[in-house]
Automatic annotation (TrEMBL):
InterPro entries, per database record: 4Fe4S_Fe-S-bd (IPR017896), 4Fe4S_Fe_S_CS (IPR017900), HdrC_iron-sulfur_subunit (IPR051460), Helical_ferredxn (IPR009051)
Molecular function via GO: 4 iron, 4 sulfur cluster binding; metal ion binding; oxidoreductase activity
Protein name, per record: 4Fe-4S dicluster domain-containing protein
Gene Ontology CC terms: plasma membrane
């Protein structure tokens, strides 16, 4: 079961992301992303919006799939900067993995 924490977007600001709530979930980024993988990056952004920390940490390795091509950021109609959101989520996940001594497999 995922826990929801609506204060998470504020916390993400410490990791360099201030656009989490700008996303209105249109799916353009997932449609344009060359990875064509499990609604990436939209799904991760949705997890961030609702503060589903456990889902983000469980699926954290997926954040390293991003190729930094920038297509999602260029096409986002809300200028939510999804590419930068993914980088911020990486910083968040790394912070927690290091703190908890977690080594991803
Ligand atoms: S980040 Fe932008 S393109 Fe992706 S779902 Fe949100 S609003 Fe749409
Ligand atoms: S920057 Fe990453 S998430 Fe965005 S379209 Fe490219 S590969 Fe996909």
């Amino acid at each position: 079961m995922a826990f929801v924490d609506l204060s998470f977007p504020d916390e993400l600001e410490r990791f360099g992301v201030s656009t989490t709530l700008d996303c209105f979930n249109c799916g353009t980024c997932a449609a344009i992303c060359p990875l064509i993988y499990e609604h990436f990056p939209r799904q991760m952004i949705r997890y961030a919006q609702i503060g589903a920390r456990d889902r983000i940490l469980e699926n954290g390795v997926e954040l390293w799939r991003c190729l930094h091509c920038g297509l999602c950021t260029q096409t986002c109609p809300r200028e939510a900067n999804p590419g930068e959101l993914i980088l911020g989520l990486r910083r968040y996940v790394l912070h927690h993995w290091r703190r908890d001594g977690h080594v991803p497999s």
